[in-house]
Amino acid sequence: MATTEAPGQRGGDAGARVAERLREEILRGALSPGDRILQEELAERFGASRVPIREAIRILVHEGLVTTVANSGSWVARLTLAECEEVYLMRERLEPLLLRYSAPHLTDADFAELQSLAARVADASTAGDVDGFLRFDRQFHLASYAHAETQQLGDLISKLWNSTAPYRRAYVATWSSDLQRLANDEHHLLIETLRDRDIDEAERVLAGHIRRTRRQLARHPEIFGGES
User: Which residues form the HTH gntR-type domain (predicted)?
Assistant: First the structure.
């Protein structure tokens, strides 16, 4: 059985820098699900040898952003609607647990940061700034998990977020003002339940927040190319 090298063992800083650039391009939609990733083109573009390019791809495969098929090549990861729903069902159950690990340790400074991020999410929604919304929304949720000390759960949640990022982008672009307002209200409700140290209720709010997105995504199969 072949072994998989951990990201970062080869390619060093150059591979990490290439991965950072590609990650940013995938998350902001410059590269779309299913786009082919050619090592030769990347090597020329970044002025790098094959070793850091292979390391960059390995990092992004580990993060759930790229899929590699042996003897075929690499592509930006893509999901069917059914696969995306499965990912959201996992998030719906696992993220409240991650929040439970973090919640007791949130400080006044953390709550101030969450309030600031929630305000930025709301401002981006009002301005129709999809990139800003996605960036600040992700920062908001990850900030609420910041104090969770786990061996695997945090990395898994990050990978699940990555795998659905392109589809969330397409979905958020369709939002009505009512959906924007609801998402913002849920963020503020989550902050209040966390501030009150009502962790059970915070878990319920978060699970409902994720569930609503899953159900709304299911109403837009066109985002997945009509796949189900």
Answer: 12-79
